[in-house]
Structures are given as C-alpha cells and as structure tokens.
C-alpha cells in the first residue's frame, strides 16, 4: 500500500508540476479588451443550447491543467507524428466541448489576431460556465501560453492516480500545496455533469454504502452487462445547477461514484466534517471553490516566450496536419 501511494504521488508530481506561475487579470486590457465578453457570450450560447456543455467546459479546463499544466494541450488533434490527449484512457468518450472552444477562438482571431491563447480561453470559459449554471464567479488571472505538443503519455498515467482512495488523492494534492478543504471543494465540481455506466456499475450493484432506492434507480439504466456508455447525473438532485446538492447527496449515501462517496463516510472520515459544512453552507463551498479553481489554473503554465499563442486551438502553429 505504501509503495502504491508513493507511485501515485510521484505521478501527481509529474503531472501537476511544482510551480505556480505569475499571471495578471489585466493581461489583455490593451491587446484585446473585448476578450472576456467574447468568451462569455459564446459560453452563454453553448450552455443555453445544451445544459451539459457547462460541465464539459469546466472539465476541459481541469483536465488540461492536470496533464502537464494549463497549456491548452487537451485541445490538440492527433497528427501523423503524435497522438493527442483526447484518446487517453482518462478522457476516452467523455471529453466534449471542443467545438465551443473553436467558435470562441474564431471570434477572438477576428477581433484580436494571434493574441488570446487557447489555455486562457479554457480558463475563462470554465469560470463563465460555472456562473451560467448558478455558481460563483471569480477573477481569472490571464497570460497563459499554449503548448506545441500534447501529453498523451502523461494523460494515461492519470488513471491509477484517480483510481486511488481518498487518502491517496488528498496526499497527492497536499504535495502540491492544496489543503484538504481545497481538495474537497474542487471535488464539488461534480455538482454538475454526467458519468458513464462503466464507471459506476460496480458501485450500484455491490457497494454497501449506497442508498438502496438510489442504487435501484441507477440499475435501470446501467445493466450488469452492456450499456457502458449510458450516463447518469453525478448530482441526481440538480444535475445542471452549480450548487451544494452534491454534498447534501453524499450525506445521504447518494454519491454516484465510489470516489465521491468516500468523501463522506458518516464515521468520522478525514473529509466528513468538510462535506457536512459544505452541505449546510453553500456560500462557504462557493468561496473555497473559487479560490481553489484560481489556484489550480496557475499550475505549471507557460508564460513569456515559452510556448506560443495558437491561431487554431486544434493544432500548433505551422503544423501541416
């Protein structure tokens, strides 16, 4: 168990990196003052058309940051010489929203050619998605630049990390300067979004720490065999509203994923008190969440002359295919 923890923490160290870059909320104030309004208007259109897109855009930013830093690498298409991150095991068939980023980038390139990075688009779109779904807002530091290559191998190493238990994950985040509160707050992103049957099947048929009526309702759409891609909302109460219902559900043993329910055991677990607080105090959750998202968005970004500002988020500048 100790060796497994060490391995997973090492993987987190590689993926997250150890530096928090200096960014500025006023980075585009002269070079592209309309950047925020353009991103916001496109996010509003996308979420109004399809509610699940808000969670999808939030997830894109998180996954981008967790794999080699917030550098827009998640957006790169496969090429003849390199495979992108979208087909990584942690992303397979579950990462969407690329067309929304394309639409935002196209408008920004018309308004301010070659100025706003794809990594910054992801960060602002995530914030605006949360706001559109009823959640908190925050000031987003900007100035990230884009990577010229994807990190497929690093993406694949995320799988054993996120399959670890809650203590492993808390420890890994702690190594990168995140408190237990920040870890739980970030987990609250699951108040919106969907999960595929293959990731919760075992829990709804075998787990003891799940409300039986809730489990039965999930079994109807997630048979013991087949239906791997059938989905269920992670927050069954308000699946497309960013609120604290996710934590309320955990206290009722209605966590969809095993990793979610581990946050609240009801037996004095390491994060029980935090979940209980967030379940009864939505503002406390919102305040902690906003701060934690800003923090994760600063991890191992490219700035200055490092990286580039892609003109097309799907490929590096100068790439032929």
TrEMBL record:
Family from the record: Belongs to the peroxidase family. Classical plant (class III) peroxidase subfamily.
PROSITE patterns: PEROXIDASE_4 (PS50873)
Binding of substrate, residues: 160
GO cellular component, one term: extracellular region
Binding positions (Ca(2+) 2): 191, 235, 238, 243
Coiled-coil residue spans: none
Binding site for heme b: 190
BP-aspect Gene Ontology terms: hydrogen peroxide catabolic process; response to oxidative stress
Entry cofactors: heme b; Ca(2+)
Record-linked SUPFAM superfamilies: Heme-dependent peroxidases
Subcellular location as annotated: Secreted
Gene name of the encoded protein: LOC110730843
Chain sites annotated for binding Ca(2+) 1: 64, 69, 71, 73, 85
Predominant cellular place of this UniProt entry's protein: secreted
Protein name: Peroxidase
S-S bonds: 32-112, 65-70, 118-313, 197-222
Entry keyword set: Calcium, Disulfide bond, Glycoprotein, Heme, Hydrogen peroxide, Iron, Metal-binding, Oxidoreductase, Peroxidase, Secreted, Signal
Organism per entry: Chenopodium quinoa (Quinoa)
Cofactor note: Binds 1 heme b (iron(II)-protoporphyrin IX) group per subunit.
Entry GO MF terms: heme binding; lactoperoxidase activity; metal ion binding
Pfam families assigned to the protein according to its UniProt record, in alphabetical order: peroxidase
EC number, UniProt record: 1.11.1.7
Domain Plant heme peroxidase family profile: 22-317
Protein role: Removal of H(2)O(2), oxidation of toxic reductants, biosynthesis and degradation of lignin, suberization, auxin catabolism, response to environmental stresses such as wounding, pathogen attack and oxidative stress. These functions might be dependent on each isozyme/isoform in each plant tissue.
Signal peptide: 1-21
Swiss-Prot/TrEMBL catalytic activity: 2 a phenolic donor + H2O2 = 2 a phenolic radical donor + 2 H2O
Record-annotated site: Transition state stabilizer: 59
């Amino acid at each position: 168990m100790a060796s497994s923890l060490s391995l997973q923490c090492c993987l987190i160290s590689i993926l997250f990196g150890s530096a928090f870059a200096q960014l500025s909320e006023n980075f585009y104030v002269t070079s592209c003052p309309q950047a925020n309004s353009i991103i916001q208007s496109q996010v509003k259109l996308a979420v109004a058309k399809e509610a699940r897109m808000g969670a999808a855009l939030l997830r894109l930013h998180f996954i981008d940051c967790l794999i080699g830093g917030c550098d827009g690498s998640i957006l790169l298409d496969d090429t003849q010489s390199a495979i992108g991150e979208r087909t990584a095991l942690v992303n397979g068939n579950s990462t969407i929203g690329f067309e929304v980023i394309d639409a935002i980038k196209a408008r920004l390139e018309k308004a301010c050619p070659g100025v706003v990075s794809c990594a910054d688009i992801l960060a602002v779109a995530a914030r605006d998605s949360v706001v559109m779904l009823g959640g908190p807002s925050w000031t987003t530091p900007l100035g990230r630049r884009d990577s010229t290559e994807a990190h497929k191998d690093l993406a694949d190493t995320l799988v054993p990390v996120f399959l670890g238990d809650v203590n492993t994950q808390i420890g890994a985040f702690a190594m990168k300067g995140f408190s237990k509160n920040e870890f739980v707050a970030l987990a609250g992103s699951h108040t919106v979004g969907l999960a595929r049957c293959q990731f919760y099947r075992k829990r709804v048929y075998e787990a003891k720490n799940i409300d039986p009526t809730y489990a039965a309702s999930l079994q109807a759409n997630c048979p013991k065999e087949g239906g791997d891609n059938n989905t269920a909302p992670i927050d069954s109460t308000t699946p497309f509203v960013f609120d604290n219902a996710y934590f309320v559900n955990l206290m009722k043993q209605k966590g969809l994923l095993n990793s979610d329910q581990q946050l609240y055991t009801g037996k004095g677990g390491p994060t029980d008190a935090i979940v209980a607080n967030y379940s009864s105090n939505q503002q406390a959750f919102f305040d902690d969440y906003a701060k934690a998202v800003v923090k994760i968005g600063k991890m191992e970004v490219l700035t200055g002359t490092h990286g580039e500002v892609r003109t097309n988020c799907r490929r590096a500048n100068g790439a032929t295919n």
